[in-house]
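Subject: design request, 385 residues
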């Protein structure tokens, strides 16, 4: 199925890349990709584009601000402009905002060009949709997706780079996906997630600890959801014959509305659950894929599974301090210099082989050299300490 490779936190920057820079980014990104695919194949390109560290290095080599949220949208935009499915055997579909909603039709067009079967094309469209659903609905970390790019090779392999925005803190979180042998889309699809901060609380229905909560969520929907109303009362029930605490202790100042669960379901929300009941989803992936099954309903079912059945979902942010090359401070493990050097040499080879003007190649190599020397100084300093 699929595996998520990693996540990066980036501050939101306004504006856009100037045209003189962007057109050079298009040229450089296209030539780097051509050289990389020629040397290592399209599968290796997908593997590296799904690595948040390699993606970040590529963005820096292209000349973009190293920590800006614009590295995602601009780098993906440059790759989409430079790669032609007919010439390169790689499709770059989707994009930012409205462009992301055109992903399915772009996948279908490329599927026909690549002579993929109808069922394969349908599966690819399904993966594109479900990857977004998992990150926006199963993982409720406060980041609303606004960017979704789908990379597809003529062999049917794919990768996804998408980004969410946290309006409160003005930060973006980037999610990378890669098609692989993971058997379950909704359980533990992450191979490694990296960022500088962790949310204090985030609902993660993909965690292994949430497995029982996922199963009970499906069972709650398979039963008539009408009985779920009592857990989400928007207004207090008035019982004339029932005494209240206020009758015995007038000084108590309690709120008029205090539902059992801190989530209110509207009649419209309950209608969505009723439609799901009529369909009778057989597993959590089917439940998640139903129309209208958004974050609010997923969260409500998770809360009921905890309240009624004691099946607590994971509230730990899935972001982990794990890195492709290790951490410079030795956490969670020391830098694997062999892997690190291989990544550097791959990118450097691609630059040297790319069909670029001498000046552009020199400037790109200098940017790469600056990145490498900076990281090596940090590692050496930490080692001496």
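Subject: RE: design request

Done. Sequence follows.
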């Amino acid at each position: 199925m699929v595996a998520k490779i990693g996540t990066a936190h980036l501050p939101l920057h306004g504006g856009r890349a100037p045209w003189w820079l962007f057109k050079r980014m298009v040229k450089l990104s296209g030539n780097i990709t051509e050289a990389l695919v020629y040397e290592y194949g399209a599968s290796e390109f997908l593997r590296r584009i799904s690595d948040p560290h390699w993606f970040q290095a590529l963005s820096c080599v292209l000349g973009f601000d190293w920590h800006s949220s614009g590295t995602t949208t601009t780098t993906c935009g440059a790759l989409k402009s430079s790669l032609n499915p007919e010439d390169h055997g790689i499709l770059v579909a989707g994009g930012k905002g409205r462009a992301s909603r055109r992903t399915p039709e772009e996948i279908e067009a490329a599927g026909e060009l690549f002579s993929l079967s109808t069922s394969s094309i349908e599966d690819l469209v399904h993966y594109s949709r479900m990857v977004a659903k998992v990150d926006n609905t199963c993982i409720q970390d406060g980041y609303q997706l606004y960017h979704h790019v789908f990379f597809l090779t003529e062999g049917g392999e794919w990768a996804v780079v998408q980004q969410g925005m946290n309006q409160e803190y003005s930060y973006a979180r980037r999610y990378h996906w890669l098609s692989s042998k993971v058997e379950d889309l909704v359980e533990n699809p992450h191979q490694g997630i990296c960022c500088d901060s962790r949310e204090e609380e985030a609902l993660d229905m993909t965690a292994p600890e949430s497995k029982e909560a996922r199963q009970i969520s499906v069972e709650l929907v398979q039963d008539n959801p009408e009985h779920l109303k009592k857990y989400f009362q928007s207004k207090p029930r008035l019982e004339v014959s029932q005494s209240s605490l206020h009758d015995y202790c007038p000084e108590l100042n309690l709120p008029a509305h205090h539902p059992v669960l801190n989530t209110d379901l509207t009649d419209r929300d309950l209608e969505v659950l009723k439609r799901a009941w009529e369909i009778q989803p057989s597993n959590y992936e089917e439940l998640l894929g139903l129309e209208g099954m958004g974050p609010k309903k997923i969260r409500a079912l998770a809360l009921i599974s905890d309240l009624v059945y004691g099946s607590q979902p994971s509230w730990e942010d899935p972001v982990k301090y794990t890195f492709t090359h290790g951490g410079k401070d030795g956490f969670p493990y020391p830098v694997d210099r062999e892997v690190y050097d291989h990544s550097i040499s791959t990118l450097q080879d691609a630059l040297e082989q790319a069909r670029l003007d001498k000046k552009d190649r020199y400037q790109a190599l200098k940017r790469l050299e600056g990145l490498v020397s900076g990281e090596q100084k940090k590692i050496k300093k930490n080692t001496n300490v």
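Residues 133 and 288 are 7 Å apart (CA to CA).
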